[in-house]
Amino acid sequence: MSTSDLKKLYAASLKWSGEYWTGITTLAMSLLGQAGNVADDVAVGAGKLLTPSQAANKIVNAERVGSGLKNDIYHRAASYLSESQLSKGTVYDLGNNNILLQVKGGLNGKTGIFEYILNRTGQVTHQLFKEGGVINGIPN
Q: N or C: more exposed end of the chain, with fewer CB within 10 A?
């Protein structure tokens, strides 16, 4: 396979989502000998997730967009967790270089989870406290 073919494969992989995107991008970058971050996004190197500490740092400093801006108590409360609290969470790959961070917590005496979706450009597109929620890698 020529370098030109590999570059086309890599470019096509940027349009794909889910596990195909991760697998093809990893292959293309490996074959091209390119290491490091993909488009200054949520992945650390090709196909590797952020650690909870890295995700926490990005989340506390991220711009909120879309449903990340909802102002009801269940959405807004997620804005007040500290980086230290968030770093105790679990990170999941949602495909297309988006991640989900879920962490146990409570709101108004009720237990559940806080969750955040961080997109490829480092914006929080979803944040929520889910009463009775469980850490399972599935956004609520």
A: N
Residue spans of alpha helices (H) in 14-131? 18-32, 52-61, 73-76, 83-86
C-alpha span between 66 and 36 (Å, rounded): 29
The topology under which CATH files domain 52-131 is Beta-lactamase Inhibitory Protein; Chain:B, domain 1 (3.30.1450)
Domain spans of the chain? 3-32, 52-131
Which residue in 16, 23, 33, 27 sits closest to 96, CA to CA? Answer: 16
Q: Is the dihedral of CA 76, 79, 80, 81 positive or negative?
A: positive
Show the 3-state SS of 79-100: HHCCHHHHCCCEEEEEECCEEE
Model pTM?
A: 0.68
